[in-house]
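The pair is quoted verbatim below.
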Amino acid sequence: MLVLRNATAILPDREAHDASVIIDGDRIATVETRESVKGDNEIDLSHCVLFPGFIDVHNHGSIGIDVMDASESDLHKVSHYLVSQGVTGWVPTLVPSSDDNYAQVAQMIQRAMQDSSKGARVLGIHYEGPFVNTAQCGALHSNHFKTYAGPDDLDPLRLPATGVRMITLAPEVEGGVALVSELNSRGWVISIGHTRAALELLNEVFEGGARHMTHFMNAMAPLHHRNPGPIGWGLSRDDVTCDIIADGVHLDPVILKLLMRVKGSRGLSLISDSIAAAGKGDGEYQIWGETIAVRDGRTSNSAGSIAGSVISMLDAVKMMRSVGASDVEVARMASTNPARLLRISDRCGSIEVGKNADLVAVDAAGSVVLTIVGGEVVYKA
């Protein structure tokens, strides 16, 4: 057994100070404060906060590696980097591309899922598009956008044999209502994004299974007091969840505070939306067939649009703590809610007995000192 001693453990509803988290194999065996607890191996985490491992449901790559042209080895390199940022599970995210490219990327993801790399787990696949609105394309290439006529149109969206299947779509595309219904029947996690959909349509696809929103407030029709649109819809419904890019660029810190007040920590998930330039610093990078510049942590493409982020989930956690979110709230947004969205909360996303021992310890400065995946220490500062 492995005992993590003297940490402040962030449990689903409270902080447990001077806690001992006992790991037996790949599972959390117990959480308690008795000093008499002994294990085969002990790690003292005094002055550290122990979170459930972060789960990133929207990640296009990092450290110079783009998911769209990554090999299996490249995906493992990203996984190794991500554990240094506290991430224990991630969903490689694809931008609209050719059918052949989709097939190649899906094959690499399948291989990465099958081969443990002692990094963050690859949990499945997330298609950002191609069924999205050309008027809200953001940094996505609209020449690969599609409409929906029937089930055969889903054939190019290749899938790993197991794991998460997630898609971001705009329900107002031609055939959008039928698309949501078909995807829901196939067990996809459906998220609304890159959209200008009206309230009536959003309510209709909610009934069809679309109950989450991608990088909320970004690549959506802006909020207007006489035309609430997707942002007003997402803000007004407690049964709709949203993910956000908490980098201070995509959303101002004041907006992050506002979202915490309106949606609360139970309605929000943190994502990185990171691109290959993440972890590389300022400069110019060839990504998605164009030059993307990074200046002072802000990305921009040739059209001047923001093109993803260069943050990690750890950066998002730091940002939310800086705007006043408690550590219990942060754990919900970075771990519990993403796990629930992906329908894997029965085994991960919180520090509870019987769940996967996927954990991250951060010090007083907010830096990662230890990451554990499946009971194994995979990163130590």
In short: Residues 99-114 form the longest helix (16 residues). Residues 54-348 form a domain with the TIM Barrel fold (CATH 3.20.20.140). The chain is about 25% helix and 30% strand. The two ends are 22 Å apart (CA to CA).
